[in-house]
Request: fold
Amino acid sequence: MTTNVATILTQQVEHQLNQSETPSYQVLGVRVNAVQIPDIIRVIEGWVRARAGAKYIAVTGMHGVAEARNDPRFREILNSAGLVIPDGMPLVWLGRLQGFGEVKRRTPGSEVMEEFFKQTGSKYSHFFYGGVPSVADMLAKAEHERHGIRIAGTYCPPFRPLTQTEEDEVQKMIRETKPDVLWVGLSTPKQEKWMYEHRSLPVPVMLGVGAAFDMNIGRLKRAPEWMQNAGLEWLFRLLIEPRRLWRRYLIEGSRFAWAVWLEHIVPYLLKKPASGSTQISH
Reply:
């Protein structure tokens, strides 16, 4: 009995540490955690050990912050995430501007996924939700062959809202397979809303990784590393998918840049730190 109580207390402390020891800063009203991939893996493993309810991780770049600026409800969903990790060099640069030098590079969902599998192998079970038909199955097979991960299940939803019967089937599948980690490959803001609405699922961790499903099986190319490091992956993707992405990057991107200039760059130049920046001490 004493051992069980000690174990529970240890798990609770672990969970609290994972929440409180993560520094953060603000980008246009969205909390972004100043983390790198090793930090993210540590937090995920802590949540799996603690099993203190479903936590979700939002992988967010310029597009996510722009969406949140226009949609207060979505901003609330992002700010309710266990972690909001910087998938985009503008968010990295803004973190450094606010004094978070530990944010050295972006943390794309595809890299978080691949490194997590590389480090943990068969330690945890995984469920893949999202992608076009067959992509989730292809990803599960590829990652099992590369890293020996355990597959709890896969599901590719149709390009429409699920019927109640389909929704019930999906939830039943996830509840019965009891995955340790649920990877959601939809798109922003759909995947974040999905995770928020499914917090009652018995899954310790959910991650919204967007195009990582396609990237990690080679269906979608990533920009050369020099473009990624220079903050130009958006241009590479725009050239590949102009019809789908032109509005996101040319219209929303311009509005994002102007808002960042007014709310972050100008105060910095005037030696007035942007309001809302926080760093929680370890």
User: Anything to note?
Assistant: Residues 242-269 form the longest helix (28 residues). The radius of gyration is 19 Å. Confidence is low (pLDDT under 50) at residues 1-20.
